[in-house]
Structure of Protein kinase:
Amino acid sequence: MDMAMMRLRREDPRVVGSFRIHRRLGAGGMGVVYLGSDKRGQRVALKVIRPDLAEDQEFRSRFAREVSAARRIRGGCTARLVAADLEAERPWFATQYVPGPSLHDKVAEEGPLAAAEVATVGAALSEGLVAVHEAGVVHRDLKPSNILLSPKGPRIIDFGIAWATGASTLTHVGTAVGSPGFLAPEQVRGAAVTPATDVFSLGATLAYAATGDSPFGHGSSEVMLYRVVHEEPLLHGVPDALAPLVRACLAKDPEERPSTLQLSLRLKEIAAREAQGLGDVRPPAQRGGADRSSARPTEQYAEQRTERRPQGAGAPPSRGSGRRPGTRPAATQRGTTRSGTTPRATGTTRTGGRPAPRSGAGRPAPRNTGTGLRPANPRLLRQRLFVFVVVTLLVALGIAAAQGCQGPARGLDDGSVRKDRRQEQSYAPSREGLSAVRYGSGQSRAG
């Protein structure tokens, strides 16, 4: 449902119940959503069933289920129900107005979200689905356009086709209710819906948020539904930190999908790591049939939750994490074999050839710098730098002191030499006179 505001049309009501209508927020298959306000000025999103459907008992029942679901769900994941009138000529209900664009509009206008944003939105939606499922409700139509990004967090809207847990998804024989590309395989087959049905839709929604495209591509409804049931999702461009989890959500078998609680915990962890720039470096998912059949998605997901992987140095995390399926990751640890596995003596190994990052008594293994050397300790570097500066200053002070002591002595020596020379010069005439006297006396004696 498009939630962009539009002016009221001539056929639109101006007052519904006790609410005054201001704008159109959008229109869907069941009715029109308006922006209204009550006498206190509280803004609401008011949904009114279409006139041509008001006499249809089936649509009235679906409308009543949406109101019932809104009343049963507790928590901040959905818009709070304000008022409703199911017996009116055109049934309506009003919920708290949620400002903000839909996830679909934000991605369409600004491009795919970063890995940290995707994980943050996914964690909030998973936590919201926990409350929805605890109320015994399955949304059945979770998709980017039914998620509003409010300043207080994402909100799930449009429970028009919500149903109790275990109900069928068919309204008519051979007709599935929902949006192609975001429907779960059991919905297409007409099987009973469970909370795992919403998990599949959430996985497809997160893939759209990370790539800007549906994981099952584009095409007619028949083509999209066939791909959902028989083909694997295309997750090119999904960040490596999120790809294994999204793939587990999109498992064909509902039993192999993680629970909403597991999703919430894991996505919160990924969001925290990505926000700190410590995103996991994961190998690209193998798209070959042999590798896919060797490990079920839930087993891979369990391994990924119990093992924390070291990050390769020199590769800052990015939105798409840089690697795409089909590329061979470089070896990041010494002691790994050519096939990518680690000898059993140095630690446990896991599927995919990545060594376990923990060693000893549960302490995290040091990150490898990629050069075979262990990274320097920042604290030790600071201590060494401090010692170097102190020693340099002491040496400089010693040299200055030595030069200061030699300067006066050298000047004193030069002064004494000059004094001796002046005395010798002053004595020079007396010596010459003495020589003359001696010479004269010698001549007189000779005469």
